[in-house]
Specification:
The structure holds 2 protein chains of 2 kinds. By secondary structure, chain A is mainly alpha-helical. In chain A, 75% of the residues lie in helices and 0% in strands. Chain A has one domain. The longest helix of chain A is centred in the C-terminal third of the chain and has 26 residues. Chain B starts with 14 loop residues before the first helix and ends in a 7-residue tail after the last strand. By secondary structure, chain B is α+β, with helices and mostly antiparallel strands. The radius of gyration of chain B is 25 Å and the shape is globular. Chain B has 3 domains: 42 residues, no CATH class; 45 residues; 163 residues, Thrombin, subunit H (Beta Barrel). The mean pLDDT of chain B is 84. The chains are: A mainly alpha, B alpha+beta. At the A-B interface, helix 2, helix 3, helix 5, helix 6 and helix 8 of A face helix 1, helix 2 and strand 1 of B.
Chain lengths: 165, 281
Amino acid sequence: MNVATETGSWRRILGTLALAVLLEQLPWSGWALVLRPDFVLVAVLFWTLHQPARISFGAAFALGLLADFQDGAVFGQHAIAYVIGVYLVLFLRLRLLQFDPLRQAAQLFPIFLAVQLAVLLVGWLAVNPPTGLAMLLPVLSSTVLWYLVALFVRLWHGKGMQDRA
Amino acid sequence: MAMPGQLMFARRLGPTARLLIWLLVGVSCVVADVRHHALEGLRSGFSLLLQPAREAMRAPTDIATEIGGFFVRHRLLQKERDALLTERAQLMISVNAAQELARENTELRTLLQLQSRPGQQVVHAALLYQGHDWFAQRITLDQGGRAGLRSGLPVVDASGLVGQVSRVYPGASEVTLVSSPQQLTPVMVERTGQRGLAAGSGRNQMELRYMPAQTDIRAGDRLLTSGIDRVYPAGIPVARVSRVSRSQSSPYLRVESLPLAGLDRSRAVLVLIAEPQVTTP
């Protein structure tokens, strides 16, 4: 049974996306900023996985433009990367849905990496060479965030209990 | 299940086709933004939309600081007050000296019939938001066009030059930091008066470019703005030289320096609004 068929109402989807955007508006600085997971990307990919009919390319593109504004980057940089991420999730969707949270997060890691590399590549071609590879750190934190979210959803619906029994 | 009025077979584009369409849209966005700067309106729209959210999300940090400040020990405050009083006394002495010098300077300038320096007006601004700094280092301030800011103005904090206003929205503005790659600042070495060009090299570092190998410069020298560009007023501290090295392949020295302003710490900054200089023939 798909987790989201009973949970994925529009209210819940928009609520989590708004929460993700708000979390990014916090005045992060220093190491917290460098390590900050990409909340919006995690939210978009989560709903793409569970509700592909409602959240997919269009929403990812729009939220990608928002992310571009936030970083003061070129418009289209994150949008292109998010769209690629959505495509990868749709491609691997049936496979991803079979795994428990830890393995699912491990499978999401290369997708987050691909998204970040797309950001890097577009920024490199359009603006400047990047300064250092610190921009790959959010990949790790996004993966951890995905694990926590997936774990939370599973516990919320009581599936984790069955596994342990 | 097929409902009445609904097609039995989906007539949607496959994911690959949709991906290609969106990629095309994305690439045209990049081109429109980089080549033609056609999307500034969208940027202002996002700024207006997110301004209230950003101001609201600043509250948790402010409250935490407030509570932290409330529990500062009395003894600590007294100590700080004593230190400030001493510092004030010292500053008063230098202000007196500076006033004397300023008076003398105006007299000399009138004697030499030089144009006097343009008047300076400052706008206080606070840090609103800091984005990821992968390709350029920028911060967002909570003052914008409504406070009289415009693109190109210098931004300073208590210890030195922070950067330059690069984009202005009605209620917010974006500042490119001096340490941002490709950001150039005309500077002079305080000790020798040698002029040069400091460029940001990312991650809170700067380098002084095109210094011939025989230049007299050493670690610890302060770099000030030289004022020859008419953008920055002269004499604002910019950076301190941290390392000087020679490479065999290049005729220039490799001079690394660290910005003096608290680029990633300052929460309150000043924007200097110089009146446009009138050039008389």
